[in-house]
Amino acid sequence: MSSENQPTAAMDSLLQALQVNIIPNQEYLLQGSILDTQVQRLLHRLKGLCDNVETAPEQFFDYEVCFSLRAPMNEQTLQMQQAPPPLLLRVRRSNDPADSHMPFQLRYIGNPELGDAKRPTLVRASFDISCSPSIIDFLTEMGCRMEFEYTVKGYLFRKGRMKITVSKIFKAMNMNQEPLSQSYLVELSVLAPSGSDAVAEDMRVFAEKLKPLVILEKIDYKRLATVPYD
């Protein structure tokens, strides 16, 4: 195949994959938190429930920054007197020197689907792309604005296609690693193609096994306080 035809062939393959619904483009998510004093009990339980129980859980130490890109105002939005919400993009890289060769990760997370209120998990669009370290400069040149940054340190467990992270969030670029709270964030997630609602029930069953140490639930972000975008 000639080099001229390769981009066309790659695009055709991508479109075909989207049509047959095999690309994981949705994240099913449950979240909770646990106090520092109880986190070791949770880690012990996860070791017994998750895969590869004979080995220690995978650890991570990452830096993440969130960028926003605001859509230009047009006549319609001016008449509505309400600006559309900004596009949010997240860039994450490892702070571990042993992972210095690993690519940066660019992530887009969509708004949660309204869907069925009885659905046991939150569902939102999610796309992850590996990229070079120049991605931060590229987003800045595109007009993106940095909203916030932080470092996160924690443990990663897997149970089948489910991913469970137990992580502590710290202020970014703080040599003393000052934590933002006295608790750990616990997330149970699955990346799957659209319409894979059966995974939500599997996640609900697994979350039940972690009670009463941690209550994993779908968070209603509309009820959280927000800062107006200026």
From TrEMBL:
Component of the Mediator complex, a coactivator involved in the regulated transcription of nearly all RNA polymerase II-dependent genes. Mediator functions as a bridge to convey information from gene-specific regulatory proteins to the basal RNA polymerase II transcription machinery. Mediator is recruited to promoters by direct interactions with regulatory proteins and serves as a scaffold for the assembly of a functional preinitiation complex with RNA polymerase II and the general transcription factors. It is found in: Nucleus. GO terms for molecular function: transcription coregulator activity. GO terms for biological process: regulation of transcription by RNA polymerase II; termination of RNA polymerase II transcription. Pfam families: Med18. Keywords: Activator, Nucleus, Transcription, Transcription regulation. It comes from the Eukaryota. Component of the Mediator complex. The lineage of its organism: Eukaryota, Metazoa, Ecdysozoa, Arthropoda, Hexapoda. It comes from Polypedilum vanderplanki. InterPro entries: Mediator_Med18. Belongs to the Mediator complex subunit 18 family. Its main location: nucleus. One of its GO terms (cellular component) is core mediator complex. This is Mediator of RNA polymerase II transcription subunit 18.
